[in-house]
Batch of 3 targets.
Target 1
Amino acid sequence: MQITRAADYAVRVMVHLASLPPGSRLQKSELVELSEATESFLSKVLQRMVAQGLITSWRGGGGGFELAQPASQVSVLNVVEAIDGPIHLNLCVPGASGCERSLACAVHPVWVEAREALIKVLGRATMNRLARKRRTVQGASTSELGALGRTSGEIKHDTNDDTGEGSLP
């Protein structure tokens, strides 16, 4: 099981929006820059996020995207499942299509436990908590870069991460 690129970008957008004061909006161009996604692909992700009730889209001069719910009520699990659907490690784990050998299979309980652990970890990671961590990390990064005499805009990042992009599931 691998989290899709679309879900990864959706989580990035949610963390960025959660780190802003409540009710703040960002335009698509800002989200493209912050998420390091291509505009065309992020547009599809944003549409899915609006349809799933994660964010709200506003048109006009004061338009943009904002969180549809308080950041404390949205987890990474909510975002991933809104974009990718329910988490399944394989066919025999509950919630998937099933396997007739699951009762006699020695590894079946391991798959179930692994799925439950992943769901628990992703469910505990709220956007509010991640936004606080992001602000802390950014503050430290800015301080460290300032001590080196550089700003974050002067640091080059490898942003060639568009492999795997395509249509959403």
Note: The domain at 5-151 is CATH 1.10.10.10 (Arc Repressor Mutant, subunit A).
Target 2
Amino acid sequence: MIITVTLNPAIDHTLVLPKFVAGDTIRVKSVRSDPGGKGINVSRVIHELGGESLAMGFAPGGLGRYIEQTLNSQGIPCDFLHTKGEVRTNITILDESRHINTILSDPGPETDLKYVAELKTRLRKRLSPGDWLVIAGSIPPPPPFIRISSSSPPRWVLIRSSTPMALRWQRAPPLTLRC
């Protein structure tokens, strides 16, 4: 089993424009909205390849429920914690004429440390020897410190953005990727 953790999920809106001109009114050619966050994206790829994963993390507000419903409807099991605030929104502007995109990324809501403690409890219950744990993406403010003890720690991967994360698993160093 591969368990993915997304601490700061998003709704990703992609706007396709013939040509982006700052300060101008532009007609959008097409719009796409998807649940996002690096951990969620990893679960999607695992599912597409026929693998088994469980998407976990925080799901603030009504958009958090929307993310859960969408993943479940796509056949991706999830166990998200419902937290205060609202899921962040990312907007990608795709300029077709220059083949470039611009991303506007919301930082997301603050996360109370009680939710971090609950997530750790759920992870301890879910993880079994031989499982993989993928912790991916940006971190909601304030950056949480996560330390999980286990008699047999899983193999794990940390995929992070530019935000540092204090995360430690006793006796098991991660494979770390920076995106």
Note: The longest strand covers residues 10-17.
Target 3
Amino acid sequence: MDWFWHVLWVCFIVIPIALLWIAVVVELFRRHDLSGWMKLLWLLFVLVFPVIGAITYIIVTWLRADRARDLGAAAEPPAGAPPSSVGDLARLDRLRRSGVLTEEEYQAGRRAVLEGTAGDQAPAGGTGGTP
């Protein structure tokens, strides 16, 4: 009956911890916002202290994501407001660097911001109910 406890140990402790560790290491290599040295420091921390390092990395990442989301939400203009050229261009550049936008999408967005058409809500054909 000793094998039963070993199977439970492996299924509920060893495998989840290994998956967590692997996920954190893979996510570290996929991040583009960290410098090479920060990636190396996090990787060493996660390799030397696998469980504590992985959990610490996840907590720090979540806290930074929450803080960035909160700051980003406060910086968003209202729906009808004209676009902020500097803010929109910075956001487009950040998205391009992180790999979310392709170069063509970046250029189209940049052109729209510079022409002032990014915040327009009106339809092009003028099919509204007003004369």
Note: The radius of gyration is 23 Å.
